[in-house]
Design goal:
Blueprint: H1 3-9, H2 23-34, E1 46-51, H3 54-68, E2 81-88, H4 96-115, E3 119-122, H5 133-138, E4 145-154
Helix pairs in contact: 2-4
Bound molecules: flavin mononucleotide.
Flavin mononucleotide binds next to strand 3.
Length: about 180
């Protein structure tokens, strides 16, 4: 997709059909994740986990509902695929640089999904599963890794259309 069209078409999707994405689509999305910038080039401190198992997706939702104390909250948004991005703790802490890096990975994948005509949404709320040992165990994370961001992806119930992006959306000042 042409760059300006891609920018104007990208949006958060929160309603998906049951149809799973194809392996080729998944591969293209993961490749986009691997193309993202990561602070200090520490790619070994990032892990992507593809979750397509319905039972684990449901468990993530259950853990997030408990984490937010909101029975109506949906973390996965009913998407058939969630790609969890986890980062390594350093000296017992997760650095803001690594959270930013995970954000870059997710955003790259979000754009790739848009390019493929799929719906997707950034899930900061995946952090709510950090209270659930069961979810953390089932994600098979490397030692010392914690989920900090995720992308829900699937076939959108309503395909995204190009929209106008007003330059006033984010306040900007220019210092000359
Ligand atoms: C860091 C970050 C965390 C987000 N977390 C969630 C989330 O947990 N659930 C969700 O539905 N949307 C989430 N979003 C999507 C935003 O709500 C969305 O990007 C914003 O409302 C603007 O809408 P748009 O993406 O359609 O332009 C997140 C976005 C970002 C950048």
């Amino acid at each position: 997709m042409e760059w300006n069209k891609l920018m104007a078409t990208r949006k958060s999707c929160r309603e998906y059909t049951d149809e799973q994405i194809t392996d080729e689509q998944l591969k293209a999305i993961l490749k986009a994740g691997c193309a993202a910038p990561v602070a200090r080039g520490k790619f070994e401190q990032v892990q992507m986990t593809v979750v397509q198992d319905k039972a684990l997706l449901d468990l993530i939702d259950t853990a997030a509902k408990a984490g937010y104390g909101d029975e109506n909250f949906s973390c996965t948004r009913g998407a058939p695929t969630v790609i969890v991005v986890s980062v390594a703790e350093e000296q017992g802490q997760i650095s803001p640089m690594m959270i930013a890096s995970a954000g870059c990975v997710v955003q790259n994948m979000h754009l790739a999904a848009t390019d493929l005509g799929l719906g997707s949404v950034y899930l900061g709320s995946i952090q709510a599963v950090n209270n659930s040992f069961e979810v953390l165990y089932k994600l098979k994370l490397k030692d010392g890794f914690w989920p900090v961001a995720a992308l829900a992806v699937g076939n959108a119930k309503e395909p995204a259309e190009e929209r106008a992006i007003p330059m006033t959306k984010i306040f900007t000042n220019i210092i000359e």
